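Hi support team,

I submitted a single chain yesterday and got back a structure, but I'm not sure I'm reading the token output correctly. Could someone confirm the output below corresponds to the sequence I sent? I've pasted both exactly as they appear in my results page.

Thanks,
R.
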Amino acid sequence: MKRAIYPGTFDPITLGHLDIIKRACKVFDEVIVAVADNIEKGPMFNYQKRVELVKLATKGLEKVKVVPFHGLLADLSSELDANIVIRGLRAVSDFEYELQMGYTNASLKKDLDTVYFMPSLQYAFISSSIVRAILTYDGKIEHLVPAEILPHLKG
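Hi R., thanks for writing in. Yes, this is the structure output for that exact sequence:
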């Protein structure tokens, strides 16, 4: 079984994330979306809420499993018997950071490989930070996030 982990803070999950998850499901037998606690980033939504939102957004995807995690991705990959990490690349600036993270993970666990997906063009500009900024000013986000989570973001 080809099992891959798609880790992230998902604060909140966006249509760009969902695009990568759906496309990864075409390549892997199981895609584990690992929602990181990551309090260092000062998330807008608490850990439990982010896990709930990802579960709502991926509810109909049979190959997807959502797990919360805290700690090193290399350790989680051992626990879950998943040696492939999925990461998204929107721009060249993402590449430098993601390359460094991929090498770091490989240094912690030799057989941990990273596969990079580019989002579909219509989602390439979307990031969780853009969604959070728009939410701060009660702006329109319907075109940026999965419809299933929209009621949980407003109000």
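A quick pointer for reading it: The longest strand covers residues 30-36. Let us know if anything else looks off.

Best,
Support desk
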